[in-house]
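Side project, low priority. Logging it here so it doesn't get lost.
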Amino acid sequence: MLNKEFGSDFHYCKEDRFLLKSPDQSVFLSKEFSLFFSGRVALYNLVKDGIEKEKWRKIYFPSYYCHEVVEYIRTLPIKVVYYNFNPFVDSVNKKIEVSDDEQNVVVNVDFYGLKKVNLEYLKRVVLIDDLTHNILGFKNSTASYCFASLRKELPVPVGGFCFSPKGYVLPVGDDNNKSEDIALNKMKAMILKREYLEGNLLDKEAFRRFFALAEEKFEENYTNTIIPETGKQILYELDVDEILSVKSSNLKEVVTQLEDVNQIIVNMKQFGNAFGLIIECQNDMTKIKLKKFLLSKSIFPATLWPNQFVDIDTQLEKRMLFIHVDYRYGLDE
């Protein structure tokens, strides 16, 4: 690549190192997975199925979360309740306030692949793990169900999955042409971004327009579908283990270099299958200065997640940055 303006949106991956020799080797080809357009659509269908078949009545989300997902679930006939949990300040052994009832559902988030609250003391509720930050966490999950977005860790245009560690029946969605069109637009953006990174395209707006066009459609009702064929084909080609292994190596290197830097805390001083580089700054001014410096180096940090509403969560939002340190980078970078 001539430049490294990677950011959050993946470009099209065609390096042999990160591709399977045969799509038949893909872990996601298993019938144990139900694949959807996105992670939020996967959760939506899981909850909809539970309401209809198991009479689910209430769903709990952590206060520190992606609230766009919560708003999407609010369109279902189920009561939405928050429990207070912030991964930056709370212990994994914190007892959360939920009603331990078999018609209640608790979404337990694997925050950044580093921290997940221990809910073993809950015996009756339905537990759903959000593995968006650690997609291979399904292998060790003991929840009733798991779901995740695939496009946060993998270079796919669209995609999300449901899985049941307990072998429960999973929902099956429908398809439509509009969701396929969105996937194609996202794929165009990924291909054009690669052209830009390789120096074959000078105007970055050419691919940014397609990304924006696709993203603004993600919340539309017609995205409530199974994974479009475009996304499925790309997903089945990817060597997920290798992609995530390279990210893990990169993170070990960068965390080692940053762990003694003053005014920041890196990855909550935790070790695990980290989603990326989580930087908690001493104060909001430190964050502003650090973000400005990173942008000057064409490194584009994000905030996970914006628009928090609980006081402690909003304070953390003002001080944290997230940086992808994935397979797109080499150890020397």
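Brief comment: The helical segments are 39-54, 67-73, 177-197, 205-215, 229-237, 240-258, 284-296, 311-317.
Revisit when time allows.
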